[in-house]
Amino acid sequence: MNSVCNRTSVETLEIVKLGGEILRQKAVPVTVFGQRLEETVARMIEALDKAQGVGLAAPQVGIGERFFVVQIKGEVPIVFVNPSIIETSPETVACEEGCLSLPGSYADVVRPSAVKVQAFDTKGRPFTLECAGLLARVVQHENDHLDGILFYDHLSELKQKRLLEKYEKIAKHKPGRKHR
Ligand SMILES: [Zn+2]
Questions:
Q1: Residues forming the active site
Q2: Neighbours of 174 (CB within 10 A)
């Protein structure tokens, strides 16, 4: 699962965990819209449901392309293809974040409290969305994934070190453990 996922051999999408190189690579823009993308997105939403997460970016399932899905409980999933954050609020807010690629690790991350995003849907139709609250948080976290950035990169060096040490411990003792 290095570039585009192979549908013939993959039943459920596997989430790439910390250490997977693709998590640190810059994803490339999507150029082919339509059915293939829609199918991949549908499977990502399935994987997201299964993992009980709120957002999943393509690199996290081994696809080095610029798109992600956000599904906030009780709301319809939103797909952002080739997104760009065009405005950020001057106000910032600290909020606890976790990541499906680092199960069991959480930390307070400071980010702008609202953002305005330009993106395309799976059919290639452009849209602009003003995001606040949890949506703004998830969009920024997932958008970071497209540039190979992980949430703990926003922490101080000391906090990063602590988080990674703790993560290593959890990952070691984890066979079959549920993380949320
Ligand atoms: Zn993440």
A1: 142
A2: 13
Closest of 83, 11, 98, 14 to residue 53, by C-alpha? 98
Which residue segments constitute the domains of the chain, with CATH numbers given? Answer: 21-172 (3.90.45.10)
Q: What is the pLDDT of residues 18-46, one digit of tens each?
A: 999 999 999 999 999 999 999 999 999 99
Q: Are strands 126-132 and 106-112 parallel, antiparallel or unpaired?
A: unpaired
| C-alpha 31 to ligand 1 mean position (Å) | 23
Neighbours of ion ligand 1 (CB under 5 A): 99
Cα 67 to ligand 1 centroid, rounded to whole Å: 13
Torsion sign across C-alpha atoms 46, 145, 163, 87 = negative
Cβ atoms 59, 44 nearer than 8 A: no
Assess contact for 152 and 142: CB atoms under 8 A: no
Q: What is the pLDDT of residue 3?
A: 39
CA distances from residue 84 to 67, 71, 72 in whole angstroms, order as listed: 10, 19, 20
The CA 114 to ligand 1 mean position distance, Å, reads 18
- How far, in Å, is the centroid of ligand 1 from the Cα of 175? 21
